Amino acid sequence: MPLSIIAHPHPTLRVCSRPIRRVDAQRRQLVAEMLDLMYEADGVGLAANQVNLPLRLFVANPTGSREEGEELVLLNPEIQFPKGNETAQEGCLSLPGLYGNVKRPKSVRVSAYDLSGNSIETEVDGFLARVIQHENDHLNGVLFFDRMSEESKRDINDQIQELEMDFRSKQETGGIASDEVLLEQLNQWYDKYC
Ligand code: ZN
């Protein structure tokens, strides 16, 4: 089945993703498809659990353009040494049309692996640091609005509720499976591939 981006409040967005223990052809194919989806959706980052595969992996390109900038594929990332603070607007491919201000550390150190198993150690700041922190949050089941102040969240609460009502009504009419079934499918997938 082709991959697609899942939307809030799909339960997979709230699970803690599992570490990747091996990279095979299937995982490489997954990364290629995730990059395609990210560019098609005009995004700057996409975590594996946003395509319903909760593995500790995300792709990013802060320019959002395949022809420009640096394409990042980070496996089992870890973020350390946060420095400073900065508030800026964020959006998310799993929360279409929603934007809000999020305060985050201005720079962080990232350790991860690339697809070839090489370790990556880098200090990032500014927009790239924001993208990486946003994507890393996904791996831990955290969405950007969780980090918004109550005050700024008030502006998008109605939109969040609309997304939730839309998802729940699709579940009621059978267009989307129930949370129990979705989580059971996830467990079966884990047993098979992790
Ligand atoms: Zn996101």
Relevant terms:
34% helix, binds zinc ion, single chain, alpha+beta, Peptide Deformylase, 22% strand, globular, two-stranded antiparallel sheet, 194 residues, five-stranded antiparallel sheet
A few lines on this structure:
The chain has helices spanning 25-40, 126-139, 150-154, 157-172, 179-193, and strands spanning 45-47, 57-60, 72-83, 86-90, 100-104, 107-113, 119-125. It is an alpha+beta fold and 194 residues long.
User: How much of the polypeptide forms β-strand, as a percent range?
Assistant: 15-25%
Largest sheet: 5 strands, antiparallel
- Small molecules (ligands, ions, cofactors) in the structure: zinc ion
Helix/strand order: HEEEEEEEHHHH
The helix content is 25-40%
Average pLDDT, all residues: 95
**What's the N-to-C terminus distance?**
19 Å
Classify the fold: give the CATH topology: Peptide Deformylase
Strand arrangement, major sheet: 1-2-3-6-7
CATH architecture descriptor: Alpha-Beta Complex
Describe this structure in words.
By secondary structure, the protein is an alpha+beta fold. The protein has a single domain, classed as Alpha-Beta Complex (Peptide Deformylase). The protein is built from 5 helices and 7 strands. The chain has helices at residues 25-40, 126-139, 150-154, 157-172, 179-193, and strands at residues 45-47, 57-60, 72-83, 86-90, 100-104, 107-113, 119-125. The strands form 2 sheets. It has a 5-stranded antiparallel β-sheet with strand order 1-2-3-6-7, with helices on both faces. Strands 4-5 form a two-stranded antiparallel sheet. The chain starts with 24 loop residues before the first helix and ends with a helix.
